[in-house]
Each structure stands twice: as C-alpha cells, then as structure tokens.
Input
Amino acid sequence: MSLYTYVPGRAELVDVMLDAVHLETHGHPLGTTWRERVESIARERWLLARRR
Output
C-alpha cells in the first residue's frame, strides 16, 4: 500500500504506468507497406513486453 503514497489511487497509477510505456514506443515507419508497419509495431511491442 505504500505505492499509494505517491499516487492518489489505482486510476492514477494506471495512467502513470501507461505514460511510462508510451514513452518507450517509437513512431511508425513511413513509406512502407501496411504489412511492414504492422510487423514493425508487433516486433517493438514484443521487445517492450520482454523488457517489462
């Protein structure tokens, strides 16, 4: 429960966690096909999940 010393409640905690994850993501590559963009996003999300 000491975590709630830093944030008022669960909703704010989830917001802070989502912000941290979004800071680690990169923009989507431009000038590629939709399939290449989806593959790139999937690889990025997989690596992010493994780090977490």
Observations:
- The two ends are 21 Å apart (CA to CA).
